[in-house]
Design goal:
alpha/beta; Rossmann fold; 5-stranded mixed β-sheet; two-stranded parallel ribbon; 4 helices; 7 strands
């Protein structure tokens, strides 16, 4: 029987309020004791400088596992405050004009502000309370995804291996 593990990559930095959703989600998931690997939290941020290292870690230690990537995003005015779940992962730093490989199989995007001519200023000027609320919503979404993946694995006869959070 195959074994399936879920990995959650919480991307962002505590240095920029609007970009701190990912690390806050990591803190919440770890405090909740979620049954999957969780990388990225308020102490160990996964930011642009560390993405390559974590991509290598995923390839070396989690090949074949399902990776859920969590990050803050900017979007249309009507989308602010929403959590979006997307297939094929996400592209960290896209709001700041960075281009890179998508990370993950599933992306959880917390839309924390409206796209503007100065996206960094938008991210830097976010309300801490609003960001905390978005992190709570994103963490709840990740919990639901992990439960769903576990149920789908069980119905397919695949062993879902609960793991300790590193």
């Amino acid at each position: 029987m195959d074994k399936l593990q879920v990995v959650v990559m919480c991307i962002g930095t505590m240095k920029v309020v609007g970009d701190s959703v990912g690390p806050r989600v990591g803190d919440i998931l770890k405090a909740d004791g979620i049954d999957c690997y969780v990388y990225g939290d308020s102490v160990g941020n996964i930011n642009a400088c560390k993405l390559d290292v974590y991509e290598q870690l995923l390839r070396a230690c989690h090949a074949g596992d399902i990776v859920i990537a969590v990050d803050a995003a900017l979007g249309d005015k009507d989308d602010v405050g929403k959590i979006k779940v997307v297939g094929n992962g996400l592209r960290p730093g896209k709001a700041l004009g960075r281009s890179g490989n998508p990370i993950g199989d599933i992306g959880v995007l917390a839309v924390v502000g409206e796209r503007s001519e100065d996206n960094f200023a938008t991210l830097a000027s976010g309300s801490v309370r609003f960001i905390e609320t978005m992190a709570e919503k994103a963490a709840a979404t990740v919990h639901a995804l992990v439960r769903y993946i576990g149920a789908q694995a069980a119905s397919a006869g695949i062993s879902y291996k609960a793991v300790a959070t590193p």
